[in-house]
C-alpha cells in the first residue's frame, strides 16, 4: 500500500482505528454481518462505478446497494429482462409519427413498466405484448450507462454516438416509456442522482410526469430554473375516473398542488391535457348531420372547465393533445371503467387511422379552439402536441400555438432551451434507429422554420362549422 493511501485515511481518535476509506470507493450501505449470497450483477455495477469515480469530475453519492437489494430480492424468481434496464437514452424522431417533435431526445430512469399503470398507456400496450410490463415491477436503469455517456461526451475527446447531439445541448425529455417520478424513486433515488448529474453538466431537460413527487421539497431542491421545465400530465381532474383509468398515479388534485408549488417557486410549469378524451361522440360539436338514437352519451373525464382549475393553480401554460387509442388500450379502459368508450368514436375514423380509435380532424380542432378561447380568458398560454395525431397536425394547428417557435412552449421561458431535436439531420437520426424502422423524409421538410404560413393549411371553415350553424351543439358560453 502506498504512502499516499495512508495519507487519505482519517487520523485515529481515542485509539480507535477507523475502517480504511478508498478515495474512489462508491458509497454503499454498511454490509450485514451475515455473509450475503453472491450478487454478480451488483458486483459488476459497483466495479464500473469505482472506475467512473476515479475518472470523472462528477462526484457521485449514489447508493449502489439498491441494485444489490434488488438482485437478492429477485434471486429465486428473476425479473424478466434482468434487474436493471439498459439503453436509457433514445432519439426517436426518425419515425414518421414524431419526426417534427422538438423534444424527441428522450431518457427514462426506470423501465419495463410504470407503477401508475395507466390503462391508455402506449408503453404498457407495447411492453405487455412482449411480457415485460411490470413483470413484476419497473426496474431502475443502469446509472453507470448514463454517467459514462455524459463523462465521455463532456470530459473526454473519445468517440461517442451521442457527442454531436449532446454538445449542442439538445434538451432531454425525461419520462417516455415510464415515469421517472414514480414514488418508488424515494427508495431507489436513481432520478435524484440523474438530476444532480444534469446540473453538474448544465444540461437542459423537460420533465413529463403523472406524479406529484417532483413537488416535494427535496426534489425541488435538485431542480434548476435555468435548465428545466416541468409538464404535468393531467388528462382530467375527475379523480373518481382517474382512479380507474390511472390506478397507480397520484390524484389530479395532488398533481395540481405540486404544479402550483413549482410554478410559484418560479419554475416554468405546464399542464398537459394529454391524452385528451372526447366529451361527446365524434361530430357532436361540428357535424351538422349528427344524429344519435336516444340520449347522447357524455364522458365526464376531460373537460373544458379544466382550464379554470389549471389557471387557479398558477400554471401558465396548457398543452393539449387529443388521444388516439389502440384496441389494447380501449379494452383496458372498458374493463377498468365498465363503460364502452368505443361509442364515442365513429367507425370511418377508426378505419382511417388503421384501427386506432381516433377523432375526426374537424372535431379535434373544435376542442382545441374551445380550450384556447378559455385559455385566452384566463391569460394562459395554449399549445398543441401533435404526437399521435399525424404530422399534418403539426403544421395545421400552429396558428393555435401561443409560442410560434416551440409547440411545447419552453423556448424563451427557460434560458438554456436554445436548440431542439428538429435540428438533427436525418442522417444523424438514422444512427439511432434502423433503416427498417425509420421513415425516409424529405430532409428539407425537417428544417422548415415554424409558423411559415405556406405550410399551414387551414382546415375547411372550421370556425363557421363550430360557431355559425345552429344545428350544431355548443358548450355554454363562459
Ligand atoms: S405515467 Fe406515463 S408511462 Fe406511466 S403508465 Fe401512465 S402513461 Fe404510461
Q: Unreliable runs, pLDDT <50, ≥5 residues? A: 1-23, 456-471
Return the average pLDDT rounded to an integer.
88
Tell me the structural class.
alpha/beta
State the shape: globular
CA-based gyration radius: 25 Å
Sequence of strands across the biggest β-sheet:
1-2-5-6-7-8-9-10
Distance between the termini: 78 Å
The biggest beta sheet is recorded as: 8 strands, mixed
Strand content: 5-15%
- Distinct ligand kinds: iron/sulfur cluster
The percent of residues in helical segments reads: 25-40%
Question: How would you characterize the overall build of this protein?
Answer:
This protein has 478 residues and is an alpha/beta fold. 33% of the residues lie in helices and 9% in strands. It has 19 helices and ten strands. It has helices spanning 3-8, 40-55, 65-73, 122-129, 143-155, 163-167, 185-188, 190-200, 217-220, 239-245, 252-264, 306-312, 327-337, 347-352, 361-377, 391-396, 426-430, 443-446, 462-467, and strands spanning 89-91, 105-107, 110-111, 139-140, 172-174, 205-209, 228-233, 268-276, 317-322, 381-384. The strands form two sheets. Strands 1-2-5-6-7-8-9-10 form an eight-stranded mixed sheet, covered by helices on one side. A two-stranded antiparallel sheet has the order 3-4. Helix 2 runs antiparallel to helix 3 and helix 2 runs parallel beside helix 5 (143-155). The protein is globular, with a radius of gyration of 25 Å. The N and C termini lie far apart (78 Å). 39% of the residues are buried. Mean pLDDT is 88; it is low at 1-23 and 456-471. Bound molecules: iron/sulfur cluster. Iron/sulfur cluster is lined by residues 114, 116-118, 121, 123-124, 178-179, 210.
Amino acid at each position: 500500500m502506498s504512502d499516499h493511501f495512508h495519507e487519505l485515511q482519517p487520523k485515529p481518535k481515542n485509539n480507535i482505528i477507523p475502517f480504511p476509506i478508498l478515495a474512489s470507493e462508491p458509497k454503499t450501505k454498511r454490509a450485514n454481518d451475515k455473509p450475503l449470497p453472491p450478487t454478480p450483477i451488483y458486483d459488476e455495477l459497483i466495479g464500473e462505478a469505482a472506475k467512473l469515480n476515479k475518472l470523472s469530475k462528477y462526484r457521485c453519492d449514489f447508493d449502489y446497494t439498491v441494485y444489490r437489494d434488488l438482485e437478492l430480492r429477485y434471486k429465486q424468481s428473476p425479473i424478466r429482462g434482468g434487474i436493471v434496464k439498459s439503453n436509457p437514452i433514445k432519439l426517436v424522431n426518425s419515425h414518421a409519427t414524431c419526426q417534427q417533435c422538438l423534444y424527441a431526445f428522450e431518457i427514462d430512469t426506470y423501465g419495463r413498466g410504470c407503477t401508475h399503470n395507466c390503462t391508455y398507456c402506449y408503453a404498457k400496450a407495447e411492453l405487455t405484448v412482449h411480457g415485460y410490463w411490470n413483470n413484476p415491477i419497473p426496474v431502475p436503469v443502469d446509472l453507470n450507462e448514463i454517467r459514462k455517456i455524459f463523462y465521455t461526451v463532456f470530459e473526454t475527446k473519445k468517440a461517442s454516438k451521442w457527442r454531436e447531439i449532446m454538445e449542442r445541448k439538445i434538451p432531454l425529455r425525461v419520462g417516455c416509456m415510464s415515469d421517472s417520478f414514480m414514488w418508488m424513486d424515494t427508495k431507489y433515488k436513481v432520478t435524484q442522482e440523474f438530476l444532480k448529474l444534469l446540473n453538474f453538466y448544465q444540461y437542459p431537460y423537460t420533465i413529463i410526469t403523472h406524479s406529484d413527487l417532483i413537488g416535494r421539497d427535496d426534489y425541488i431542491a435538485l431542480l434548476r430554473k435555468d435548465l428545466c421545465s416541468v409538464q404535468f400530465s393531467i388528462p382530467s381532474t375527475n379523480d373518481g375516473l382517474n382512479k380507474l383509468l390511472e390506478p397507480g398515479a397520484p390524484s389530479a388534485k395532488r398533481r395540481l398542488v405540486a404544479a402550483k408549488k413549482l410554478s410559484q417557486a418560479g419554475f416554468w410549469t405546464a399542464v398537459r391535457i394529454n391524452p385528451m378524451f372526447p366529451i361527446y361522440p365524434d361530430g357532436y360539436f361540428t357535424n351538422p348531420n349528427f344524429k344519435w338514437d336516444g340520449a347522447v352519451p357524455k364522458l365526464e373525464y376531460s373537460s373544458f372547465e379544466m382550464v379554470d382549475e389549471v389557471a387557479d393553480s398558477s400554471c401558465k401554460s396548457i398543452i393539449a393533445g387529443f388521444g388516439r387509442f389502440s384496441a389494447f388500450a380501449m379494452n383496458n379502459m372498458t374493463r377498468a371503467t365498465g363503460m364502452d368508450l368505443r361509442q364515442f368514436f365513429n367507425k370511418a375514423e377508426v378505419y382511417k387511422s388503421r384501427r386506432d380509435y381516433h377523432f375526426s380532424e374537424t372535431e379535434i380542432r373544435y376542442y382545441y379552439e374551445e380550450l384556447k378561447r378559455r385559455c385566452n380568458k384566463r391569460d394562459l398560454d395554449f399549445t398543441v402536441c401533435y404526437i399521435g395525431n399525424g404530422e399534418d397536425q403539426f403544421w395545421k394547428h400552429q396558428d393555435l400555438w401561443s409560442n410560434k417557435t416551440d409547440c411545447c412552449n419552453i423556448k424563451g421561458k427557460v434560458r438554456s432551451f436554445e436548440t431542439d431535436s428538429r435540428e438533427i439531420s436525418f442522417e444523424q437520426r438514422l444512427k439511432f434507429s434502423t433503416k427498417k424502422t425509420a421513415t425516409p423524409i424529405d430532409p428539407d421538410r425537417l428544417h422548415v422554420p415554424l409558423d411559415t404560413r405556406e405550410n399551414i393549411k387551414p382546415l375547411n371553415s372550421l370556425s363557421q362549422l363550430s360557431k355559425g350553424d345552429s344545428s350544431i351543439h355548443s358548450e355554454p358560453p363562459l
